## 1
Amino acid sequence: MVRRLKVFLTKEVTVRSGLFTGGARYKDSECPSPTNKVLAYSYETKEWRPVAPLNVARMEHSLCEVDGYIFAIGGIGEGNRLLSSVECYNPRTNCWFYVKALPEPRAAASTSAEGGNVCLQGGYSQMNHGQPSSFYYENKVKLFYNMETNK
């Protein structure tokens, strides 16, 4: 049984077997902080259960599913530090591992997945500055690149 957590602004992703939510603003005091907690909801049992935590606590990150793997991308970490790190979760092994980082830190971006690849759009790369550029992650070569500059 999962106890009630004081979290808000969570990120969720739907997979074949259920729903995953990972990272969020965790409000345990006056100042919200990022969390590395990840929960999985099973459509079959209709229950939430904790799974392996993210390697890095994050909030305002992107979360998406590609080919059965879940990607946690960028966000804001401890100390309001913008993150460029990208983690990938393998549900079969219940393990998060790092993949190639973003070319620059990014938070509050939208993601979409198509053909085994990830497109990261918008968000911001500096506090209080919007960033209209897009990044594309090619799963075959495990690399993010800027769609406008091809770098």
## 2
Amino acid sequence: MEAWVKEMENTNIKRDPEKKKTHRLYNGDIPRTYAASTIRKFFYTLKKVVEWHASRHRYAFNTPFKGVKLPSENNSRDRRFQENEEARLLATCEKMPNAYELKTILLFATETAMRAGEILKMTWSMVDSKGQRVVLPSSITKTSKAREVPLTSIAVKLLDDLKQKKPPQTTSVRTFVSSSLFYSTDR
């Protein structure tokens, strides 16, 4: 089993030849390997199936699964842009409709580390520019717990620029439609 786990860590995932290029930023030629979490899921699924089969058919089974060292699951979210990723994303935003809003969302997300859903549901009443924070109610957070997000000076400037460029007609911050700060999901 140890050898199988090592092989899975180094196995390249084959690209589906039937899959067509669906997006202009898609690059299917980059070799990919299985993530630690995928290997762990495969391993535990295989283990359960073999153990179930042994118990169902009542035969002695000397498990090869004990003592197997699995790759540790890394769920940390501390990745930042590498090299010129941010510049490439911003350049791509320029080609899109609503380029200003997309760039603002991208830069605001980078500055605050807020989730996309939180940013898209944010309203002006949640923004405290003087206290440099956004107070997110439990109704819009993934964890269903209210939280405060500190704003950097850059994030405050982004919101101030957004307010000047696209004056809010309601209490919402989204700019594609008047009822929201950045973006409307109800189009």
## 3
Amino acid sequence: AWEQPDLLAQAEGGIALFLHNWPETYSYTLSEAVAHGLFPLVPDLGAPAERVRRAGFGAVFGFPIDAGEVLRAIEQATAREMPDRAGPAAFATHEAAEAHAALMQESARPVAQAGRRAGRRRERDRLSA
């Protein structure tokens, strides 16, 4: 049996090319590739393109996919010099911040609901007194 992280650790090269032709919703494969230091190239379709743009790490090429455009994206990716601020850490930091914000929103919802219920009880008690 193979494990994806083991395969990525053994991979030679520095880019991860995604050629999906339907809108992906998140793409854990993108997360794994970036975590292993690969520079992602994704089509302008779905969440992977949004994630790459927000993180500022990776490149987005047009959709529908054109072979010539993909080849140019590969050439540019292999010739690039990585800016100091970009890289897997920048991608992961953005992802972690989004996950933390979502968790905080989810956690705050029950507290807010409980506060409203308590306020309604106090108002009922005040009116019935």
